[in-house]
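Hi Q.,

Before the meeting this afternoon, I wanted you to have the dioxo(di-mu-sulfide)dimolybdenum prediction in hand. No need to reply - just skim if you have a minute. The sequence and ligand are here:
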Amino acid sequence: MTDTALQADATALETEVCTLDIGGMTCASCVRRIEKAVLKLDGVTDARVNLATDSVTIDYAASLVAPAYLKKTLSGLGYQVSDKGEGADAIDRERAARQREVRLQLFNLLLATPLSL
Ligand code: 9UX
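Predicted structure with the ligand bound:
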């Protein structure tokens, strides 16, 4: 398939958008380096790096490329890659798990008390 045919196909495809946080972008050339690497992949139709927020927004066809592969490509270049807001989500999940643990111990305590009397 020629490049133009491939591009025509890509634009006809349903595209998804994902934003990834990128750690380790220290100079403006990183922007071009990241955009070039991602745009080179089949299924990627656009990539926009935002240096101010340390993130990249990628338009891609989910039928041709998986977000995990986009992440792998960028981490392969030496950047720290995570889903947007993953850090905050992880903290929330940890907090929820801790609350479950506390409730479980309280329940065990209430259950054990009458038996020991
Ligand atoms: Mo600049 Mo980025 O010297 O990988 S291109 S830090």
